[in-house]
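Field notebook, page 217. I keep forgetting to write these up properly, so this time I am using the form the group agreed on. The chain and the ligand, nicotinamide-adenine-dinucleotide, are recorded exactly as supplied. Prediction of the bound pose follows.
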Amino acid sequence: MAETIIPKATAKRLPVYYRYLNFLANSGTTKISSTELSDAVKVDSATIRRDFSYFGALGKRGYGYDVVDLLNFFKKILNQDRLTNVGLVGVGNLGHALLNYNFRQANNIRISAGFDINPELAGTIQSGVPIYPMDEMIKQIKDQQIEIVILTVPIDAAQHITDDLVKAGIKGIMNFTPIRISVPSYVRVQNVDLATELQTLIYFLEHYGPTLKEPEA
Ligand SMILES: NC(=O)c1ccc[n+]([C@@H]2O[C@H](COP(=O)([O-])OP(=O)(O)OC[C@H]3O[C@@H](n4cnc5c(N)ncnc54)[C@H](O)[C@@H]3O)[C@@H](O)[C@H]2O)c1
């Protein structure tokens, strides 16, 4: 199952399905039709069926989907059946906002360690998370077996911190800095840029209006 190779667009929709199924399970719903799921997550049912088909048949014809079965399945795929510890490098404005956000409430993810060069921050606890000085970063990441790091440092610090993160054995970086960091092929980088997302939203509003669904990726 872990070896299933799926398109990026499908991978991006999996957490959306997961969140909604979690909501359904919590409210006691036991089954859902593909049309209901489609309406709720705003993804057309053909796309949902295609997404699910990458993982084999998950629904029964004429019955729809069993919510708990599907939820457990996505839990495994998204590693939500175990807690994922994430590191945060750069505890400034954006870093603080991310620390304050309780990832764990809906997703089994928590920021377990923060790192910052500012001596006033290092050695403190911010939003319940210990902040370490940079010279402890590699050791803490190894000791805590952190595999994913969120990068929220100024541009000029991004690459050399990335190089240290690679040395520490990190597997994935969520990069909020505006530069494209270089990593070896076995490390994955997810770039997040709110300005680009906003531009995309503006583009879709201008070209397709507020109610039409965006064309399939
Ligand atoms: N992707 C987005 O949508 C988005 C949105 C806002 C900001 N950003 C980017 O995120 C980054 C952080 O923005 P911010 O507003 O939080 O900045 P900030 O100045 O408030 O915070 C930066 C933090 O990094 C720390 N820092 C500086 N040099 C460091 C180093 N060498 N090692 C470790 N820590 C170091 C600082 O002490 C500070 O706490 C910037 O690169 C900014 O461009 C991206």
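OBSERVATIONS:
- The longest strand covers residues 109-115.
- The chain has nine helices and nine strands.
FOLLOW-UP: compare against the apo run.
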